[in-house]
Amino acid sequence: MSCSSSLIDIADPLILDTSVLINLHACKYGERILASIPNDVVVSEIVVGELEHETSRRNGEHRFLHDLVTGGIVTLATMTDAEYEIFHELASTSPSLDDGEAATIAIAAARHFLPVIDERRGRSRATALMNARTPGWSLDLFRHPTAIAVLGDQPALEALYLALRDGRMRIPAESADNVIALIGMERSRDCTCLPGYRDRFVGTHKKSMEVETTVIANLRTGTPIRKVGL
Fold first, then answer.
1. Which label site among 40, 50, 78, 197 has the fewest CB atoms less than 10 Å from its CB?
2. Does 206 have pLDDT greater than 50?
3. Which domain holds residue 98?
4. Do 128 and 221 fall into the same domain?
């Protein structure tokens, strides 16, 4: 089962939101993934600031970004006065965005970069601001052909699984079936961030438990066991 990347034919620089970096750190292969992507990769200084809190320092996210920058894989971007005006509008008018999203979109709009954002509100406002140009997803990085070629098929799937399980990576709803097919049903049960997770897994598990309970009760009472479909 395939799950293609929308970035294949995009040559513009990519600018990453905070959550995208969190996903890349969670997957354990983030540095190799970004190094393999042919596009220039940019991060705003405001996003850097969002990863300077104690939790990000303790779990390694801050160090991860620091190593990306010092290794020349990621370039930092400082907003211009004009970009700050866009940033302020995005961060202060409804539906307001967090500072990292707002800075990512402001720079992308002004410099014709492609923002990579997973949150729905951020994607919606970016699309409206950038003449209906669709932002990229974290998933596009993980399923980029060059990243898969560098990592190998199985490590690429492991990276995808870890980003979903530990990074709680958001993906487009229309990609859910393909992603589940890629990582497998059992591993997908660990990924509660998957679109429609409750309907896909929780309901099925509950029904299975009800069937098991019925069978055990029938065995105890001597009631003939009838076939119960799932």
1. 78
2. no
3. 14-188
4. no
